[in-house]
């Protein structure tokens, strides 16, 4: 090709708006066009260097989070006695100089763990909610966190006050703090749970929604023998449809608000026990359960409505009875009979926050699970 012809062709390409593209990186991985159907009907494709499926909007929290037991943190103040959930790759440490807990993301930017802090927790003992004179309060909202009184503050350190020592720098900037009253005693401990301004709100809300105060958990009794070992098919929060349920045939659809403890292999009588002291508010039959008992429990000042489902109606404890922890309240019903409303032999056990009776075993929307607590959180060591 002559030089003149080449220049003419190049000029023509430029005038027509075309661009000469660089060769593509031949090392780039091309993922296949497969799609995964999520429980809510949406689809996700393969992404990233390993072509793994992206997470569904309703991905089970158990794949993303780990249990944080405050009592297991080295050198922690005995004032902290709770469990909750944090992202699986996060860590927690005691800040012994001020009696605090620093929850941090090791992957975050920063030279030390305080600079990587995402949630910072302190405490104070008082008879009522307190606020420091060293901060400006932009907003204050009274609320409840898992049936405990709480106040959410939007605060910022006053400009004439030095930065707070032994705390993350963001604690001296504008951020959200949630104070929680841990008991109903006149003089009690309050937790102060501060949020890094850059932290995803969903992670912070998940921490608060799964917060369990554990001062009294040593007194809890498992509702049935081999409780944790036999939760093999339907854990808390799993999304169920008749098409993909681990139990077949299946007649329910929704997010499971309890745990199922399987006893199909047992031909002997299986006793069911009250997990704590309480009052029986319902002991009868109900659609989807056969025999069912609901007991109002109070654990460390928090009210829970427990459901013990699929019991033999003839074995149920009397309604309005007062029960003690470990007291027998019935036995499992015979599988695939009227005793279990034609369900397999198993215990459906759930814990709903508050005092309201709700016999539902599933909820339609994932956000509604916030009204229930994963029972395993109360029994984690």
From TrEMBL:
Name all M23ase beta-sheet core domain ranges: 255-354
Molecular-function annotations in GO: metalloendopeptidase activity
Q: Do you know which Gene3D superfamilies this protein is assigned to?
A: Glucose Permease (Domain IIA)
SUPFAM superfamilies (UniProt xref): Duplicated hybrid motif
Give the protein's recorded name.
M23ase beta-sheet core domain-containing protein
> What is the protein's species of origin?
Candidatus Buchananbacteria bacterium CG10_big_fil_rev_8_21_14_0_10_33_19
List the lineage, top down.
Bacteria, Candidatus Buchananiibacteriota
């Amino acid at each position: 090709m002559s030089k003149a012809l080449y220049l003419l062709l190049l000029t023509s390409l430029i005038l027509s708006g075309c661009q000469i593209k660089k060769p593509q990186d031949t090392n780039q991985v091309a993922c296949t066009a497969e799609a995964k159907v999520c429980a809510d009907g949406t689809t996700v494709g393969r992404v990233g260097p390993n072509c793994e499926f992206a997470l569904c909007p309703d991905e089970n929290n158990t794949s993303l989070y780990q249990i944080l037991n405050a009592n297991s943190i080295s050198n922690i103040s005995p004032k902290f006695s709770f469990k909750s959930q944090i992202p699986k790759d996060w860590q927690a440490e005691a800040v012994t100089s001020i009696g605090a807990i620093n929850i941090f993301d090791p992957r975050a930017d920063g030279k030390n763990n305080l600079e990587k802090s995402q949630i910072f927790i302190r405490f104070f003992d008082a008879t009522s909610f307190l606020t420091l004179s060293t901060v400006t309060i932009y907003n204050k909202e009274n609320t409840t966190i898992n049936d405990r009184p709480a106040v959410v503050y939007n605060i910022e350190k006053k400009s004439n006050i030095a930065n707070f020592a032994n705390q993350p720098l963001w604690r001296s900037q504008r951020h959200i703090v949630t104070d929680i009253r841990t008991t109903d005693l006149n003089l009690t401990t309050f937790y102060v749970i501060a949020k890094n301004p850059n932290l995803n709100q969903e992670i912070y809300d998940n921490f608060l929604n799964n917060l369990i105060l554990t001062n009294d958990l040593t007194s809890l009794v498992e509702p049935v023998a081999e409780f944790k070992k036999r939760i093999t098919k339907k854990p808390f929060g799993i999304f169920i449809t008749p098409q993909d349920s681990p139990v077949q045939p299946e007649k329910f659809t929704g997010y499971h608000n309890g745990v199922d403890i399987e006893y199909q292999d047992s031909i002997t009588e299986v006793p069911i026990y009250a997990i704590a002291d309480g009052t029986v508010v319902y002991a009868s039959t109900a659609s989807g359960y056969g025999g069912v008992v609901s007991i109002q429990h109070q654990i460390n000042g928090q009210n829970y409505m427990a459901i013990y489902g699929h019991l033999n109606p003839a074995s149920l404890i009397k309604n309005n009875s007062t029960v003690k922890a470990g007291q027998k309240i019935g036995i499992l019903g015979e599988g695939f009979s009227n005793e279990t409303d034609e369900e397999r032999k198993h215990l459906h056990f759930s814990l709903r926050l508050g005092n309201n009776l709700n016999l539902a075993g599933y909820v339609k929307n994932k956000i509604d699970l916030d009204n229930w607590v994963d029972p395993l959180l109360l029994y984690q060591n």
